[in-house]
Amino acid sequence: MTWDPFGTLGRALWIGGGQWAGKSTVARLLAQRYGLTAYHYDYHDARGHDDRRVARRLRLGEPPGGPDPDTRWIRGTPADLAAETLAGFPVRFEWALDDLRGLVSGRPILAEGWGLRPELVAPIAGSPRRMVVMVPTAAFRDRQARELPRAATVGAGVSDPALAQRNRLERDRLVADDAVRSAHRLGIRVIEVDGTLGAEAVAGLVADHFRPYLPPEEPS
């Protein structure tokens, strides 16, 4: 049984899924609407967990800064990148759980992020109704890659930015597809985001799914 001293994990609501599906935006909207505390996995994974990531790399005999950009994005295939990402999620999930245990609130915690995998969350959530998986359609993922500055590039240092971006987007597709398969296997709802609904409408779908666990809406 997962250690949960304040009952935070057992009362949490979870949004997992693929990159660029609008998970963070939906979580922010629901947090404002219902007075929830939102936990953004990507933010903490990229910042608050860096000391743990470096320590783990050193234990494994890896460079503390991780692989160079070409090794990471160009020399491997998208399937290799996806397999590496999926293999790292269970370790990083434990770090996220440590963060969540420290959040104590009279209202549910709403945790969102692509590292919150259905197979990792399900044993903690207790009910599949406490989780939803959001994934973008191929067309919406391409649109996000064109329009979102943070989605448009893998960063500096790669010798072939176009190839690196193609590899990244294909990795993201493979990781999202894996989340969908896992969700279906566990009876967790999947919401496919195609861009025809605005963020408020998608947040409404997620709110309806979580309705049994949500407090009354905050006064506007």
Please provide a brief summary of the model.
InterPro entries: P-loop_NTPase (IPR027417). The chain has 220 residues and is of the alpha/beta class.
Structure overview:
There is one protein chain. The protein has 220 residues and is α/β, with parallel strands linked by helices. The chain has a single domain (8-213), classed as P-loop containing nucleotide triphosphate hydrolases (Rossmann fold). It has ten helices and five strands. It has helices at residues 8-11, 23-34, 41-46, 50-59, 69-73, 78-101, 118-125, 138-147, 161-186, 199-209, and strands at 13-17, 37-40, 109-112, 131-136, 189-193. Strands 2-3-1-4-5 form a five-stranded parallel beta sheet, with helices on both faces. Helix 2 crosses helix 10 (199-209) and helix 6 packs across helix 9 (161-186). The longest helix is centred in the C-terminal third of the chain and has 26 residues, at 161-186. The protein is globular and about 50 Å long. The termini are far apart. The mean pLDDT is 92.
Alpha-carbon Rg, integer: 18 Å
CATH architectural label: 3-Layer(aba) Sandwich
| Main β-sheet description | 5 strands, parallel
Count of helical regions: 10
Mean pLDDT: 92
Task: Look up the CATH topology.
Answer: Rossmann fold
Give the end-to-end Cα distance, rounded to a whole number of Å.
40 Å
Q: What pattern of helices and strands is seen along the backbone?
A: HEHEHHHHEHEHHEH
Please write the CATH class name: Alpha Beta
| Main sheet strand line-up | 2-3-1-4-5
InterPro entries: P-loop_NTPase
